[in-house]
Write a structure and sequence with these properties.
single chain, mainly alpha, Leucine-rich Repeat Variant, Armadillo, TMCO6 isoform 1, transport, Importin-a_IBB
């Protein structure tokens, strides 16, 4: 008869505190990776008139003479239609990097374009802004910096009356922001944060979506935590962003995606996450998670993952904050409903978007790490078997599934009793056969906890050829200490 000897595993390689330390280190690495995996990009608005699009010709690369000619016609033409047509031709030529370089090399070209941008003729203003937009899409920082004389005017026009023009200015600013620190250095004292904060009051969905894009580009700047995010947190933007994420008939998916990523970048900066928690970020995101789970049950729309990803990341990061406990953050998330909603999303990802499974499992890990109530919900809803079904997806997913199971097991004997043996034993024997060291290591940690809190597990494990499963890894340098400890427990327990 196998029996447990008190404290046998504690002085060896991996006691409960050691397991917790390892998981904390792993979670810190995960958080760092998610901070670094940002979405720096540029967007291009092109809305050519039907007659232009239907001409069947590709816009030509322009030389110096042609650029000068179009600028002269736009500035000095006798008829507005002629001037507008010259800017249209220039704008189409600026779609080519070669024309962009030619343009910025020409002395006075940007001064002329800014003059047209600030003219009192709306159509010329619009076409000049479209030319700037083409320039802003360049991958060369020198092109973005050549647009510096125009930035103050683009900011000024954010308070205008034309929603189309405001949208264009916002996307142009967003493109310029991400390309050059020099542009950001100029925009900050010019008042870009108050200007963006004023735009969030717009009733136009297209403007709000463009605002979210521009703001997300600003938040991804390397200097954002020190120079940008504090002023954003001091404005009304955070409260308004959370309002944009409130579930209900007014929720617009496109707008919500943009502001969810904005919130993600703010949270990752860790400048003042308690402030966001105090504004109700956890409860808002939790309700949005429930809403997303309901939506995936009604539709096959694969676009839902665009919103699910930043929402999951925001919740996961906020749950690591000490302030969650002090402001009752866990109480803002209703245990069983959140766990059930998360598993609906995990099943959706499993079928439609497996690459997002780690995002959902990372949230499940953070929910269960320090919360017996979430672990109880997982058990009472019979979700262990659905969780185990995710093991074959990938090694990354396997490690995260096993980490969640470790979170449950470390809560003590009552939790281990409900875990073991059931479907967990064959699943563990299977993961012990993996070649991936991290998967096997996490399996060993789970076995360690089960042996510690559930002495009967040792005998059942041996009856199922458990020692042979351990022997496969006894020569592996990273695992041999843990394997040896478990072997000794099994043989002497």
């Amino acid at each position: 008869m196998w029996s447990r000897r008190q404290g046998r595993l504690r002085p060896t390689v991996c006691g409960v505190e050691e397991l917790r330390r390892r998981r904390r280190e792993r979670e810190a690495a995960l958080r760092k990776a998610r901070r670094e995996q940002q979405l720096v990009s540029k967007r291009l608005l092109r809305d050519d008139a039907p007659e232009e699009a239907g001409e069947g010709c590709v816009a030509a690369i322009l030389g110096e003479t042609e650029v000068q000619q179009f600028l002269r016609q736009a500035q000095q033409g006798t008829e507005e239609k002629e001037r507008e047509g010259a800017l249209v031709s220039l704008r189409r030529g600026l779609q080519h990097p070669e024309t962009q370089q030619t343009f910025i090399r020409l002395e006075g070209s940007m001064r002329t374009l800014v003059g047209l941008l600030t003219s009192n003729q709306a159509l010329l203003q619009l076409e000049a802004a479209r030319c700037l937009h083409e320039l802003s899409h360049s991958e060369q920082s020198t092109v973005a910096e050549a647009c510096l004389p125009a930035t103050s005017y683009l900011l000024t026009y954010l308070s205008g009356h034309s929603s189309d023009f405001i949208e264009l200015c916002l996307y142009t600013l967003g493109n310029l922001i991400v390309e050059s620190e020099a542009v950001r250095r100029q925009l900050l004292p010019q008042g870009i944060v108050p200007a963006l904060a004023a735009c969030i009051q717009s009733p136009h969905v297209a403007v709000l979506e463009a605002l979210g894009y521009a703001l997300s580009q600003l938040l991804q700047a390397e200097e954002a935590p020190e120079k940008i995010i504090p002023s954003i947190l001091a404005s009304t933007l955070p409260q308004h962003m959370l309002q944009m994420l409130q579930p209900g008939p007014k929720l617009n998916p496109g707008v919500a995606v943009e502001f969810a990523w904005c919130l993600h970048y703010i949270i990752c900066s860790q400048v003042s996450n308690p402030l966001l928690i105090g504004h109700g970020a956890l409860s808002t995101l939790g309700l949005l998670l429930l809403d997303l789970a309901g939506a995936v049950q009604k539709t096959e729309d694969a676009g839902l993952e665009l919103l699910a990803c930043p929402v999951l990341r925001c919740l996961s990061n906020l749950l690591t904050e000490a302030a969650v406990e002090t402001v009752g953050g866990q109480m803002q998330l209703r245990d069983e409903r959140v766990v059930a909603a998360l598993f609906i999303l995990l099943q959706f990802f499993f079928q439609k978007q497996p690459s997002l499974l780690p995002e959902g499992l990372w949230l499940l890990n953070n929910l269960t790490a320090n919360s017996p109530s979430f672990c109880t919900s997982l058990l009472s809803l019979d979700l262990i078997e659905p969780l185990l079904q995710l093991l074959p997806v990938s090694n990354v997913v396997s490690v995260m599934v096993l980490t969640v199971l470790c979170n449950i097991a470390e809560k003590g004997p009552a939790y281990c009793q409900r875990l073991w043996p059931g479907p967990l034993l064959p699943a563990l024997l299977h993961t012990l056969a993996f070649s991936d060291t991290e998967v096997v290591g996490q399996s060993l940690e789970l076995l360690h906890l089960l042996f510690l809190y559930q002495p009967e597990a040792v005998q059942v494990f041996l009856q199922q050829s458990g020692l042979q499963a351990l022997e496969r890894h006894q020569e592996e340098a990273q695992l041999q200490d843990r394997v040896y400890a478990l072997q000794q427990t099994a043989l002497q327990g």
